[in-house]
Amino acid sequence: MLRRTLNLGILAHVDAGKTTLTERLLYSTGVIDAIGSVDAGTTQTDSLALERQRGITIKAAVVSFMIDDVTVNLIDTPGHPDFIAEVERVLSVLDGAVLVISAVEGVQPQTRILMRALQRLRIPTLMFVNKIDRRGADCGRALAAIAEKLTPAVVGMGSVRGEGTRGAVYLTHAPGDEAHKARLVELLAEREEALLASYVDDDSNLSHRQLHAALAEQAQRAFVHPVFFGSAITGAGVDALIAGIAELLPSSVGNADGSVSASVFKVERGTAGEKIAYARVFSGTIRVRDRLWFGREGLDVDDEAKVTAISRFHAGSAIRSATVAAGEIARLWGLGEIRIGDRIGEPGSRPWTAHSFAPPTLESVVAPRRPNDKGRLYVALGQLAEQDPLINVRRDDRREEISVSLYGEVQKEVIQSTLADDFGLEVEFRETTPIYVERPLGDGEAIERLHAESNPFLATVGLRVEPAAVQSGIEFRLQVDHRKVPTYVYKTREHFAEAMEEYVRQTLREGLFGWQVTDCLVTMVESNYSSPDGPPATRGPLSTAADFRKLTPLVLMQALGRAGTVVCEPTVRVSVEIPAQTIGAVMPALARLGAAVETPSVEGELSTIKASLPAVRAADLRRQLPALTGGEGVLEASFDSYERVSGSMPTRPRSDLNPLDRAEYLLRLAGRVSE
Q1: Are residues 533 and 659 in the same domain?
Q2: CA separation (Å) from 485 to 447, 494, 496, 627, 671?
Q3: Fewest beta carbons within 10 Å, which of 212, 368, 501, 569?
C-alpha cells in the first residue's frame, strides 16, 4: 500500500515571517478559522512561553494540512542562529523546504547558513520572498541578492504590483510571457540541453506544459529553486506558493508493507513526565504494542521497547491512532530509553547519512536560587539534554556546581524559562566561558599489572595513547590475547572491547588540564585477570568489571601524562560584508579581537572580509559591527576548528575523582559505597 506524503520544512532568518507564513498556510488550507499572531502569542506552532514573549521559534513544531491528495506535514523550525542544531536535526527528515526571505531586509546571515545546509543535504527548496506589503520592499533587489548570495539557479515565478503598499499583489507569469520562458529555458538547459536546442530551433515547439514539467523535475532534484513572492500577513501570493509546494516539491511514496525504518528528530516529555519521540517513518508500519528496535546512527541496534501509544498529524493537530505508516510523522510513547538521532527498525533497513553538528563552544554554570533545589536542577537539566543532546550537562561534585554547554546567550533565556515553567525551578547563570579541548602531543604508554604491590585492583591494564587526525574524535582498539579477557564477566571479547572503550571515553572527558581529550587513538596492549583456578601468577579472588573500570583511569592518565597534551580553543570562521568605506574601521577591530584576516575583496560599494577568530570573541564582533559600519555590516559566523592556545594553558577544575593524584583517587574510591 502506497501513500503520498510531503514532509515540509519552513526555514528563515529570525523575523523573516516564517511562523506567520505557517499560520497563513493553515488558514488557506482550511485547518484553522483565524490566523494567529506572533506578537500576541496565539500561533499554532509557538507553544513555549518564551516563544510567545519574544516572537521567535525555539523548538521545532509539527502541523499538518492537505493539498489535494497530498498530506503535508509542516515543520516550523527555529530561525535564531543559537538553535541551528535544532534546524539540522529536522533537515534529516524532510522531503522539501520553503526558505522564507524578507523583501525588505533581503538575504540575511542566517539565510545563507540555512541555504548551505539545504544544499549540502540536497533538499529540494522553494523560496518565498515575504513582506511585499511592507514599506521598503524591493522584490527585484531581493531576487538579485538571492542569485548573488545563495544560488544562481533561481527563477522568479511571477511579478509584484504595488510592492511596499498594503495593496501589493502577486501576479503569476502567464504561459505566453516570453521573458519568463527565455529565463526558464536558460536555467533548465544547463542540465537538459535538448530544451535549448528545441528553443533555438523553433521556440514554438516548447509548450508551457513541457517547460513546467522540466522545471518540476529539476526542482524536485534540488537543481533549481523557483522563487515566489507574497505577504503572509495579507495572503498575497500564498495560493501560488501552495500550488508550487504540491507541484514542484517531491511527495514521498513509502512502502507501508516494508520493513520498519524510522528516524527520531525530536524528544519531549509529556504532562506525566513520560518520554515522547517524534519520528519520521521511512518504511513499513508501526502499530501500538509493537516491539521496536532502536539505536544510534553508526552503531548496532542496541535497545528495544514496546510502543504504548501513537499519534499522527492530521488537519493541524496530532490525533491518536493505532498505526503510523511510511512517509508519515508520528509521536510515539513507550520508548523510554530513546534519544534524538536514534534509528528505529531492523539493522540495515535504511542507509544512514551522518549529520554532524558544530559543537557548542561556550559553557556557563547554572545555579538554583534556592540551594535545596540542586538535586532537582540536575534531574531537570538531564531531561532537557534528552531533548537536545548537544546541551552537555556537567556536574562538579567537589564545588557542587552544574554547568551546561551553549551556542549563545539566547539559549540561557530558553533554559531559564523552561526550568521555571516546566519544573518550577528559578535559576541564575554565571559568566559564559569558552569550552576548550585537549589533544595529545605525542605517544605515551602505561601498564598496571595484576598482583603488583602498587596495584590494589584484580586486573592488568596496559594502554597506549597516540595523536590522531584532527576532528577524528576518540578511537579505541583492543590488541590483547583473547585468553586474557575475563569472559565470565564480559561474555565475549567484543563485549570486553565495548566496555573498555566506554571506560576510556569516560576518563577522557577530563584530561591533564581538565578539558575533554579528543583526536587520539587509545590501544589496549595488555590485559589479565585473577581467578582461583588460573595459572599460578594469576590465582586469587575472581576479578570483576569494577576492577577494570576503576583501574583504567589510573593507567590512562599515566599514559596521557607521558604523551603530553596541548589545550586548544574553539575558533569560528566569519565573513563580514560591509560598505567599502568602512574597511579602515573594521580591520583594526578584527585585529584587536585576535582574528586571522584574509585580504578583503571589494565588489562595487561592498567589501567582504573573511577571517578566523576565537569563538568567545565572535559575540564581541557582532556587538561592535553596527557602530563600525553605520548599521550596514552583515556578519556570518560558523564553527571552524580548535586551535592551539598561545601562552599559558587554561585549566578547568576536575569535577570528580582525580586519577592524576593516585593517593587521592584511591582514598576517595575507598570512601565511596562499594559498587
Answers
A1: yes
A2: 16, 10, 7, 65, 29
A3: 212
DSSP bridge pairs for 343: 263, 295
Is there a single domain that holds both residue 236 and residue 370?
A: no
- Spatial separation of the C-alpha atoms in residues 328 and 273, rounded to whole Å: 25
- Give the integer Cα–Cα distance in Å for 160 and 168: 7
- Are 520 and 632 in a shared domain? no
Output the CA–CA distances (angstroms, integers) from residue 588 to 595, 646, 660, in the order listed: 10, 21, 43
The pLDDT, as a whole number, for residue 350 is 42
DSSP per position, 266-288: EEEE-TTS-EEEEEEEEESEEET
| Residue 84, beta-bridge partner list | none
C-beta atoms surrounding 581 within 10 Å: 12
Beta bridge partners of 311: 320, 331
Residue 507 sits in the same domain as residue 576: no
Start-to-end C-alpha separation, the chain? 53
Q: Which of 4-13, 71-80, 111-120, 620-629 has the highest average model confidence (pLDDT)?
A: 620-629
For residue 632, the enclosing domain spans 567-644
In which element (H, E) is residue 67 found? strand 61-67
Which pLDDT tens digit goes with each residue over 507-525?
A: 999 999 999 999 999 999 9
User: Per-residue confidence at 210, pLDDT binned at 50, 70, 90?
Assistant: confident
In tens, the pLDDT along 243-302 reads 999 999 998 777 888 889 898 888 888 878 788 988 989 889 999 999 998 876 444 446
